[in-house]
Amino acid sequence: MIPQTNSFLHRSEFTLGILAGGRGMRAGNRDKGLLVFAGQTLIDRVVSHTGSCFSETLVCCRSNHWFYSIFAQRVFSDSRPGEGPLWGIANLLGATETEFLAILPCDQKTLAPGWLGLLVDALDEEHMGVFVSDEGQHTPCCLLRLSARPIVEEALDNKQRSMRALLENPLFTTLDIASMGDDVDDIGHLSKGDVDLD
Question: Which residue among 24, 33, 163, 168 sits deepest, i.e. has the most Cβ atoms within 10 Å of its Cβ?
Fold first, then answer.
């Protein structure tokens, strides 16, 4: 028998979740997923570059549901918009129907080639999820097991709102992937050539 890695899991086991519930304060309080670069919104660039490796795409947003519905099978409101990514992660896990949930922010600037396969291979049986880091910088990009939901909800019950609650939990691990820490925090940084997901 030919040995296989976790990368050969079927797309039916994966959901893509997009976090779009932030306040966008560093982008002039604008919805970052709707910012346009080179004729495309950032959410369009993210979704169109993830390929067909997901059973379903979900968006958890604070507003503009009608717009996000173009890019996802299901769109729903962040239960606590602007109160930290952990609420958005909990919302996405609550809506996920597959065994695995991959999460990206709506303003993800670059996607490393094979990023999902790298995360799948890094997620061993001992961990509930793996978060991407980029030269030590933590990101909301991650791959979580659906079974991580109670741990996320417990952190929220304990008044923890940031990803640090998961990053410091030994049930989660990290994987360094170059360039995955790039997102768009300032509309002023959007100049030609800045956003590159190809």
Answer: 33
Domain total for the chain? 1
Residue 194 lies in a domain: no
Mean pLDDT is lowest, of 25-34, 122-131, 155-164, 176-185, for 25-34
Rg of the chain over Cα atoms, rounded to whole angstroms, equals 16
Count the Cβ atoms, other than its own, within 10 Å of residue 188.
10
121 contacts 7 by C-beta, under 8 angstroms? yes
Residue 4 is assigned to a structural domain of this protein: no
Please provide residue 64's backbone torsions phi and psi, each rounded to the nearest 5 degrees: 60, 40
What pLDDT score was predicted for residue 56? 94
Alpha carbon distance 162, 53 (integer Å): 28
10 or 104, which is more confident: 104
- Distance, in Å, from the CA atom of 121 to the CA atom of 181, rounded to the nearest integer, reads 19
Question: Cα 93 to chain center, whole Å?
Answer: 11
The pLDDT of residue 22 is: 62
CA 171 to chain centre: 19
Rounded Cα–Cα distance for residues 47 and 106 (Å):
9
| Beta-strand relationship, 56-61 and 100-105 | unpaired
**Domain range spanning residue 81?**
10-188
With respect to residue 5, please indicate whether it lies within any of the assigned structural domains. no
Model pLDDT, residue 119: 95
Q: What's CA 148's distance to the chain center, in Å?
A: 15
